[in-house]
Automatic annotation (TrEMBL):
Highest taxon in the source lineage: Bacteria
Transport recorded as keyword: yes
Cellular compartments annotated: Lysosome membrane
Protein name (Swiss-Prot/TrEMBL): Lysosomal dipeptide transporter MFSD1
Organism: Geothrix limicola
Record has Transmembrane helix as a keyword: yes
Chief location bin: membrane
Matches recorded under InterPro entries: MFS (IPR011701), MFS_dom (IPR020846), MFS_trans_sf (IPR036259), MFSD1 (IPR052187), Sugar_transporter_CS (IPR005829)
Keywords: Lysosome, Membrane, Transmembrane, Transmembrane helix, Transport
Amino acid sequence: MTSEPLGVFHPSGRFYRFTILIFISLLVLGSYFAYDSIGALENTLMAELHLDRSTIGSLYTAYSVAAIAIVFFGGMLYDKLGPRKASLLFSVLVFLGAVIVAVAKGKWMLIFGRLIFGAGSESLIVVQSAIISRWFKGKEMAMAFGIALTLSRVGTVFSFNTEELIADHFHSFRVALWAAALLCLFSVLCNLVFIAMDRHGEKVLSLQKAEAGDKIVFSDLKKFTSSYWFVVLLCVTFYSAIFPFTALSSDMFHDKWGIPNVTAMSGGFLTKVFYNFTHMFNTAPGITSITIAASMIFAPFAGGLVDRIGRRASLMVVGALIMIPAHLLLGVTHWNPIPMMALLGVAFVLVPAAMWPSVPLVVEEKRVGTAFGLMTAIQNGGLALFPLLNGWLRDKTGTYTSTQIMFSGLGAAGLLFAFLLLRADKRHGGVLEAGSGAGSRGTELQPE
Ligand SMILES: N[C@@H](Cc1c[nH]cn1)C(=O)NCC(=O)O
């Protein structure tokens, strides 16, 4: 009997797998754009809505508080709906939250919008991680995470480089916030394509029904090894020194170095966008986005490298180490900030590329959902606290020196956790340091 050749677009093939990856990545494009639209528009928002920096920080805090609550209590919802319906529900929440932010008349409505937005957005990111693990298990997993990060970062980089421009061009910051909401709607449409492809793939490949992504199963907590906990601790310290920093860094570049928010340029809107991108190093939000652009460009290559050489814990050590001088020099010197932002960019390439794909390697397969959910909840604890502290310290002291020392300290704590991870991984057989072929999925791991 001759077997039918499988088409190029068969769910078991690479082409199908990577196409589905594109849509699962675009699922969060809008939310990444909208997440940082606050940071990108901070000077305009502060002027137009009479907000202080602590309030800008509190908009990030509201996002993370909602995220922590939903990740802990949203488990039942996942159980009932499954990730496809849940992803749809959460992407609609993201869109709704972005709309509320766009129409908000003052601080409290903005905070309410960010709460709704955060509840949807972080859950969507966890579903995304669980789906990537499911489609790329034992395949190009770190590279897949890298590609997903790249497409997410496109949202962030565009946010920092177009939002002020949109507000400036249309003489209204609301148009810029509506642009963010529209992009969230685009992500809802991408979600529909992903759902169709995932359902088809599941049927054709007789895949196990997709499990709930992020339900926290409390009895699982004591089953996790120290390697997992060190990854989580590094995650919270590392990201607390990145996103809360970028939330206000455009203001720092404007305030401390006098760098403008948009380039003075006449012409049509698209000409201005193009000019702004090509002169990214001349604007405060553009300089903020250097770090993110580095991660956007290099994440898939770093992921491919991690798949091949392993050395995940060592790369996390290097990334955390680089962060310490980069933040410190931004705080205590008046040197050109671009090289420091580039250094932070290197850290932002290395650590996420090695960290997120490490999770499925250090926990048992059936606990991957819990592991990602818990890590996201704890990460958001830092993302809730540090933007507030950043804004508060800046408002109190009148400079960003103390906040930069704080971020540098977070880098030092991250370095300590990365070293402890390296040591714990040695004890657990070096699964994180192993390259392709040599690494196991850690199913034999036992709690200490
Ligand atoms: N939990 C997110 C936070 C975020 C940033 N922008 C939108 N949400 C996260 O940490 N994602 C991983 C990453 O490296 O961006």
